[in-house]
TrEMBL record:
Allosterically activated by ADP and other diphosphonucleosides, and allosterically inhibited by phosphoenolpyruvate. Its cofactor is Mg(2+). Pfam families: PFK. This is ATP-dependent 6-phosphofructokinase. It is found in: Cytoplasm. Mg(2+) binds at D103. Pathway: Carbohydrate degradation; glycolysis; D-glyceraldehyde 3-phosphate and glycerone phosphate from D-glucose: step 3/4.
Amino acid sequence: IKKIGVLTSGGDAPGMNAAIRSVVRTCAYHNIECIGIYRGYQGMIEGDFKDMGPRSVNNIVNKGGTILKSARSNEFKTPEGRKKAHENLVKAGIDALVVIGGDGTFTGGLLFSTEFNFPIMGIPGTIDNDIFGTSHTLGYDTALNTVIEVIDKIRDTASSHNRLFFVEVMGRDAGHLALNAGIGAGAEEILIPEEDLGLERLLESLQKSKASGKSSSIVVIAEGDKIGKNVFELKDYVEANLPEYDVRVSVLGHMQRGGSPSCFDRVLASRLGVKAVESLIEGKESYMVGLQCDKISLTPLDQAIKGKTEIDRELLRVSDIMST
Ligand code: F6P
C-alpha cells in the first residue's frame, strides 16, 4: 500500500475529525501518502481530492463535524457512478480506502470493494450506535452527553411549571441513545423502537407517578419508537386522557450531532484510525475496526452491515426501578 484515501460519509458525528487526523498521521508515521476525499462517495465520483500531511490536520482533534464534509450520494448507488469513482482513484494512484460512517457508508464501500477488488477499511461513525461489531460508534458518547445536558436544562423549566415534557431523541431505528441518555437524565419513561411500551401502560405509569407525588416528569422518546403516534400526537393523547397533565414537547434534532467530541470519542477515534491504517498495511481488506471489551477489533464488513445490535434489556429494568 502506497497511498490511502480517507472519506467521511452519511450523517456526521463528533469524533470524525479526530479519526481523520488519526488516519492521516498514521499514514505519515508509516511513510504512506494520504489523500482526503471531500463529500464522501460523491467527491470520489467528482475527483474532489486533496493531499493530506500531518500538518493539514492540526487543531481538529477537538472539532465537531467533519473537515472533509459529508454527503449521502445517490450516484454512488449506480454502477456508472462507482465506475467513475474507481477511475478517479486509479488516476490518483490511491490503492486503499478508509471510510468513516455508518451502515450506508459500509454498504456502499463493500459493494465497491467487491466490484473492483479494492481494499477498504471501515471506521464506525454515527451517533446512533447501531453498528454490529463495536460497543461504541464514534460520536455516540458525545451525543449522550449533549442529550443529558439539554434534558438537565429542560428539567429546570419542567419542575418550575409542574409540567410533563416529551423529549424526542435521534437514533433512527435504534434506541441506544434514548435509553442510555434517558437513564442518565432521570427520565420517567423511555420509549424505544426495540420495546413497545404501549399507550395504556404509558398512561398508567404517568398516573402512578402523579399519585406518588411527582409534580413534573420527563419522558424520553426515540425518533424510531413503535408507539404509533408522533410526539405531538402523543402530547394531545395524554392531555386528552390525563387532564391533570400540562404537556410540552421538545424535539432535540440536529444539535445532537454537533459539538466538540468527548474525551472518550477522541481516544476511540485515535485508536480506530491507527488500527484501520495498520490493518491495510498488513494486507487486510473489507473489515470494520471497532471496540469490543475495550480492545480494538476487526469485524468483516458484511457482518457489520448485516448484524443487529441488541439493546441491553437490563437497562430497561434499571430505568423502571429508577422511576419508582
Ligand atoms: O444517522 C444519524 C442520524 O442523525 C439519525 O439519528 C437521524 O435519523 C438521521 O441521521 C437524520 O438524517 P439527516 O441529517 O439526513 O436528516
